[in-house]
Amino acid sequence: MARSKRYYVTTPIYYVNDAPHIGHAYTSLACDVLARFKRLDGFDVKFLTGTDEHGQKVEKSAQAAGVDTQVFTDRVSRNFRDLAQAMGFTHDDFIRTTEERHKRACQDLWRRLMDRGQLYLGAYSGWYAVRDEAFYGEGELTDGPDGKKNAPSGAEVEWVEEPSYFFKLSEWGDRLLKFYDDNPDFIAPRSRRNEVTSFIKGGLEDLSVSRTTFKWGVPVPGDDDHIMYVWLDALTNYITAVGYPETDGGEYATYWPADLHMVGKDILRFHAVYWPAFLMAAGLEPPKRVFAHGWWTNEGDKISKSLGNVIDPLELIETYGLDPVRYFLMREVPFGNDGDFSRRAMINRMNSELANDFGNLAQRVLSMVNKNCGAAVPMHAGFMEFDYVILNPAQDLISTLREYMDRQEFNQYLETVWSVIRAANGYVDRQAPWKLKKDDPERMGTVLYVLTEMIRQIALLLQPFMPDSMDRMLEQLAISPEHRTFAFLGPDHALVPGTALPKPEGVFPRFVEEDGGGKGGG
Length: 522
Ligand code: MSP
What we know:
By secondary structure, the chain is an alpha/beta fold. It has a domain at 343-519: Isoleucyl-tRNA Synthetase, Domain 1. The chain has helices at residues 22-40, 56-65, 69-86, 100-115, 173-182, 193-201, 230-235, 237-240, 250-255, 268-281, 313-320, 322-331, 343-372, 385-406, 410-431, 433-439, 441-462, 467-476; strands at 6-10, 14-15, 44-52, 93-96, 119-129, 134-136, 142-143, 149-150, 158-167, 187-188, 207-208, 210-211, 219-220, 223-228, 260-264, 290-293, 296-298, 301-302, 339-341. The longest helix is centred in the last third of the chain and has 30 residues, at 343-372. It is elongated, with a radius of gyration of 26 Å. 5'-O-[(L-methionyl)-sulphamoyl]adenosine binds at residues 12-15, 23-24, 26-27, 52, 234-235, 237, 263-264, 266-267, 295-296, 303.
């Protein structure tokens, strides 16, 4: 299979310090949509997610819970797996940084960096934020109200002094800038590029990459007093999962460099600066692209445990169903921007876009087919110009949609599919097949055929976002599972008149706004 037909996409690995919330679900959902799209489009996909289990933050959380650290990470990691299952994610691997394969990869990468003269032993004295697991320069800090100093993220910092190995990051500034110039799509969205380049132009200092004051991490090869800095450990997961240190063949040769690391904007610096620098310094190829998405607020407020407004994705799924939640998260904000989560906005979209625009279209058309066409794909008697106007754009859409996916413009993808849905609704109203029933039953058959075929195409295209609902819709069109990839979008695979169809049923529920959750009629 040609290299271009492979796709390796990763989520960040999640800290196991706390319960998963909507922010975690969001990052992985975007990857799941991409992975599903690429598989339907004929790619050999590897989709990786997992948990980040070392470091001071996790160790402290385990201590606070009064539980052995490994037992604690096992438990919290399981919650992330459960969330992935509840969200319908189709990852091919779930990596945990406490696994043996990962320790081997980290230590090998360390040795490579050492062999190439990229690491040296020194002493770190400076500020560290446990919450971010990050070092900060004095100039980046602000004074908090309590007299304590805060990182730009708002995290509290503490003064640290300890022996440490350093990575010669200061030598990589110009090469990183050149790398971004040579690979203009590396940092996405484009608007984020400046913050990365100005960080580099501000001058890179060597990076402390080991700790000695606690033990919860991967031991530094040859120096047992040190464990590896959790970000060097964590970032390495992306190559562990493709079989590193084996680089000559196997999955590494197949999938590396990754096509996309999906991350939140808060961790762009680690992925767009440190990670490519580590890799280049080790003589390995950097990934192709890093996309930094925005953050969700809840009804206008920052989401935080102390505010008690953390959104539990499992509760949302329970209340609204999985696919409407997936749809809303991908549709509501242009991917890359921050977004506000509100129940009202969610219910509005579910009712107007899912239940009305698409649900009604399918329900109306399939009920008419069921009643008036002998519960089978209608016969058509020659298409007219305006039938093609409706049919053709749907078939041509895929090339536009591919571009949106490659740029991670999910809301544009959905917007474009909805323009087709709206066109189909306009066509039903104008053609009024219910009137044709008496005057021109042949023409009625043609109109209903055009509409049914459109529904088939729309359902195929929406599978990455709403897999279960679209399965049910495609079931109603008697499309077998092996005929649901994008290879079947075109006219050669259009519905065959006369094919028996099962009784139609509504796919999208309608919700009542007042109580924020009650299900109405569907
Ligand atoms: N462990 C590191 C990543 C290491 S990757 C080699 C980490 N973990 S995290 O659990 O804190 O965060 C994981 C992801 O969740 C980040 O991409 C972050 O942006 C995302 N989100 C956390 N809260 C969020 C919102 N409120 N909104 C959107 N995404 C947010 O960072």
